[in-house]
Predict the 3D structure of the following.
Amino acid sequence: MEDNKYTIPGTIIKIGGVLGAVFAEAGGFLGGKLTPLLGFGSGLLLSQITHIADNLTKETIQNWVKRNFVDPPRKGRFYDENQVARILIFNALRRAVELEDIRLLLQYVNDFSKGTLSEKELFELFNGAVVKTKGIAPGDVEGYEKAAGEELAKSLKQKEGDASKIKEVIFIMLTAYQSSLLKQKADELIFKLKATV
């Protein structure tokens, strides 16, 4: 049942049905389920990140570190969960949004939340919103609001800052992510067409 499946943004991890709902609703990084599987106590190594990330190489992450999109590992060779979340956000949006603009979105969230919303928490909100808005047309902000707006507002109420602006950034992230999925699908269809010609 492909209709019940979704992929955690920026990863190759496909989840369907009840398990998908558990990941979306459970607390903790990526639903608290992925963390122990990968030994997240210390963080993740570069090789572990590229293993779960969608089409992301070590060289790309190292390039992002050199260009200051991502901080270098904070715990020896291990990236902490906020860094992993940042990498996955960049990876989820990079097909549709320039890297500088992704950095700007993340900076806006930091500014709008007065530094109280971590990138891990932002990724969790984004991931939950992806699940809640499945089937809604890319860019349908009214649809996003109906499907995920109330829950986002409730989650953001506990944080300081401008919740409506943070929600706006998450809706931009949703639009970009859905656009990147559409582009990926179009590329697959073109590849299939070329194979038959």
User: Anything to note?
Assistant: The first strand starts at residue 5 and ends at 7. Strands lie at 5-7, 14-16. Residues 109 and 115 are 8 Å apart (CA to CA). The chain has one domain: 2-196.
